[in-house]
TrEMBL record:
Keyword Isomerase: yes
Domain NAD(P)-binding: residue ranges: 5-328
EC number: 5.1.3.2
Taxonomic superkingdom: Bacteria
A Pfam entry, by short name: GDP_Man_Dehyd
Annotated organism of origin: Tamlana crocina
Protein name: UDP-glucose 4-epimerase
Subunit annotation: Homodimer.
Biochemical pathway: Carbohydrate metabolism; galactose metabolism
Enzyme class, spelled out: isomerase
Length: 339
């Protein structure tokens, strides 16, 4: 079967995507620098699929290292590019670190792909490119707004770099997948989200609070113009999201794409408030969560959820797992990690 490179393949979304690729019979090569992940994730992937992917520890900022990698693996058929720094707050404090790590590395990979007779490239993008959208649900035609953070800006600039490269590189086909909010874990609890330090995302903060690692969950603001006053997001189960990457890759490998640069929103199409997520967790876990309403957090938008029609119709993909499924699997994973 085709050999596929997954950068950041030991991270949260990357590891789940490696599992789905291997389940479909692809041979996977992972690049990860272990800056926000652990080599132990390989064991989890192997436990689920019965197969260990090839792993190359490499910092993609090392241009010579990237060139040497592509010389060694000259038979790659596709690349799924997750590797990036992703903490919004940190990006505001350390913009140059984010521009170097998220933009420079993308350029090095695209330079190598340009040399190949043909290449398929999937880019891990984000709904942050839309900011606070004028209309909900958010379609792929919604205007890309000025980024709220250097992290968000790296996703916008990344998309522009890929689009500009595709325009003059007929041998390169690319899809940017704009995710909404990935949550949950593989049902086996062999892999999941493992944030280093204090979690930046809601669900790991919920599970870490429930297990006693954090004292309480702070809910930032209950005075937003939403039904219960808390922010609304589109929470997509990471396994559904991983499967979308395989479908998008197959679209490119099978020459089903309509142009050599395409974008798709990946979400459930349904918004859930912070308090609804808390209630879903309490329901499936049987735990009472200690949370406190505090002031709004700077940079938080009110509401964002996807219009999923394009992904449903063009990719033939839709989500199958619910918010309850995601919370149940995230809790099972948390209990295993801390157990």
């Amino acid at each position: 079967m085709d050999k596929i490179l997954v950068t950041g393949g030991l991270g949260f979304i990357g590891s789940h995507t490696v599992v789905e690729l291997q389940n479909e019979g692809y041979e996977v090569v992972i690049i990860d620098d272990l800056s926000n992940s652990s080599e132990n994730v390989l064991q989890g992937i192997t436990a689920i699929t019965g197969k260990t992917p090839i792993f190359e520890k490499l910092d993609l900022k090392d241009k010579a290292g990237v060139e040497a990698f592509f010389a060694k693996y000259s038979d790659l058929k596709g690349v799924i590019h997750f590797a990036a720094s992703k903490a919004v707050g940190e990006s505001v404090q350390e913009p140059l670190l984010y521009y170097e790590n998220n933009i420079g590395t993308l350029v090095y990979i695209l330079k190598e792909l340009k040399k190949l007779p043909e290449a398929s490239f999937i880019f891990s993008s984000s709904c942050t490119v839309y900011g606070q959208a004028d209309e909900l649900p958010i379609t792929e035609n919604a205007p890309v707004k000025q980024a709220e953070s250097p992290y968000g800006n790296t996703k916008q600039i990344g998309e522009e770099i890929i689009r500009d490269t595709c325009k003059v590189t007929p041998s390169l086909k690319a899809i940017a997948l704009r995710y909404f909010n990935p949550v949950g874990a593989h049902e086996s609890a062999n892999i999941g989200e493992l944030p280093i330090g204090v979690p930046q995302n809601l669900v790991p903060f919920i599970t870490q609070t429930a297990i006693g690692l954090r004292e309480k969950l702070s809910v930032f603001g209950d005075d937003y113009p939403t039904p219960d006053g808390t922010c609304i997001r589109d929470y997509i189960h990471v396994v559904d999201l991983a499967k979308a990457h395989v479908v998008a890759l197959q679209r490119l490998l099978g020459n089903k794409n309509k142009s050599n640069y395409e974008t798709f929103n990946l979400g459930t199409g349904k918004g859930s408030s912070v308090l609804e997520v808390v209630k879903a967790f309490e329901k499936v876990s049987g735990e009472k969560l200690n949370y406190q309403i505090v002031g709004r957090r700077e940079g938080d938008i009110i509401s964002a959820y996807a219009d999923t029609q394009k992904a449903n119709n063009e990719l033939g993909w839709k989500t199958k797992l619910s918010l309850d499924d995601a919370m149940r699997s995230a809790w099972k994973w948390e209990q295993k990690v801390r157990g």
